[in-house]
Amino acid sequence: MPEASMGDDVTVIEDAPAKINLALHVTGQRSDGYHRLDTLVTFTKHGDRLGFALADKDEFVISGRFAEALDDSRDDNLVLKARDFMREAIAREGGSAPAVRIHLQKNLPIASGIGGGSADAAATLRGLMRLWNVSLLNATIEAIAIRLGADVPMCLASRPLIARGIGDQIVPVDDMPAFAMVLANPLKGVSTPEVFRRLTNKANPPLDMTPRFNWVEAIRATRNDLEPVARGLLPEIAEISTMLKKQGASFVRMSGSGATCYGIFPTLAAAEDAAAALHSERPDWYFEATETTAGGHDAGFG
């Protein structure tokens, strides 16, 4: 993978923030195999970053800490799929979508339960609309997003929200505060299909976020139904959760299907101190102090 920095040729930059499942309830399974979920989601100020520039031919460059974990030549890369789906939609409406150079700065671990690939795809949709100066109907963009994956509509919004169904029924949560947190991952993968396959109860109680006068306590009353299964597949999840608690996290939970866990801290400074201590203890693992976005923010598109 080429190591590169965002250069002067980049004309549009889009952040692809990490998606954190503060809670994830599995409430059923459809006849087509898709699981019904209720999930409380927020987004961090830490994530991947994408740059876009007009070019003579399509190019895709990857840099960053986790660049080597991706294969930039694979046809199923979500960034390239998002580019191609956007181009198809623009062509159907008689618009122009010229060649583009896309630079992905990969700062998030791969397949880690924090929506890295989906966030990259959503940022590609937002960035290319700006670069190509096109305006598509929201319904068209949303249809492309769900075609790319169940998490992409959430990442397209990149704001605190509750998602239901297969992730396509989204309601903003405008009163959610920002949280200081540490993201922690042992850099070992967990297979999402295997987690769902081993989940014995797929009809759990739905998410109920009322009342929520104290947000941490409200989150504590929810669940991640996938965490017990993921812990059975990867014991390091339990270890990393214990490490976060020992560093003073007021609440710890796994995000998504894992293996990333988040720990909520009282301040960003406390989170930064904890991340530094954890990195000294396990320099081969991933620890990142960050803040989440408060409700009312919308990445927007169109």
TrEMBL record:
* Gene Ontology biological-process annotations: isopentenyl diphosphate biosynthetic process, methylerythritol 4-phosphate pathway; terpenoid biosynthetic process
Cited Pfam families: GHMP_kinases_C (PF08544), GHMP_kinases_N (PF00288)
The biological pathway it contributes to is: Isoprenoid biosynthesis; isopentenyl diphosphate biosynthesis via DXP pathway; isopentenyl diphosphate from 1-deoxy-D-xylulose 5-phosphate: step 3/6
- What reaction does this catalyse? 4-CDP-2-C-methyl-D-erythritol + ATP = 4-CDP-2-C-methyl-D-erythritol 2-phosphate + ADP + H(+)
Q: Where is the active site?
A: 19, 151
Residue stretches making up the GHMP kinase N-terminal domain: 77-157
Residues bound to ATP are 109-119
Q: State which Enzyme Commission number(s) the record gives.
A: 2.7.1.148
Q: Give the family, as the similarity comment puts it.
A: Belongs to the GHMP kinase family. IspE subfamily.
What does the protein in this record do?
A: Catalyzes the phosphorylation of the position 2 hydroxy group of 4-diphosphocytidyl-2C-methyl-D-erythritol.
Record's protein name: 4-diphosphocytidyl-2-C-methyl-D-erythritol kinase
User: Which gene holds the coding sequence for this protein?
Assistant: ispE
